[in-house]
Amino acid sequence: MSYQTAAARLRRMIQAAAIACIAGAVCASAVGVAAKPPQQTVAADDSFDGIYRRGSQMNANLKTLTARFTETTTSSLLTRPLVAHGTVAVQRPSRVVLKYEEPEERIVLIDGDHLTVSWPGRRIKQVTNVASAQRRVQKYFVDSTSAELRSNFEIDGQKANDRPGTYCLTMVPKRKQIREGLTRLELWLDQTSLLLSAMRMTFPNGDTKLMVLSDVISNAPLDPAIFRIEAP
Prior knowledge:
It contains five helices and eleven strands.
């Protein structure tokens, strides 16, 4: 295996871990992330305190989430964006599975501190310990208060023009430790449910991942088998 091939595979694994960790945290906890209010006077529910307070109340009752997703990847290594489709399921506190259906079947599973990436068609299965990544996501995205979020990120938020009925939140890390894995996170939250509608991650090398959710269902019973990966 060439150095370039190994480096590309390592980068894909790192990005897969980041996507799974952040997607799992954000999909089921984005309602706890809020934007600072625009400069003009807004209705109480659209203010920072209103969104954060309302989101925290709704977040406390969220146990599971399922959705379909469309993921668009841009990279200097690609001649055109790569579009993938699949499903995501989240079971709090620490399980998330992304099942890619096309262009190639692939499963990305976070279960506790372990990331499993499986390509059934290639009979490949890789398991990685992501405990440190999980702790960082929990610390910086899930357990942070509004003040702590502002101390870790430059946060801008407003009603989205490109996705009607959503808030658009842009989070730019201030800390070097976060910037090493993620340079920009954009979230679109449904204005009514405050659940995630779309998410775009920008990585240090300039690659981006845009994940758009549809058919979002919260608190539906989940079959434990959805979080199992068969041996290749």
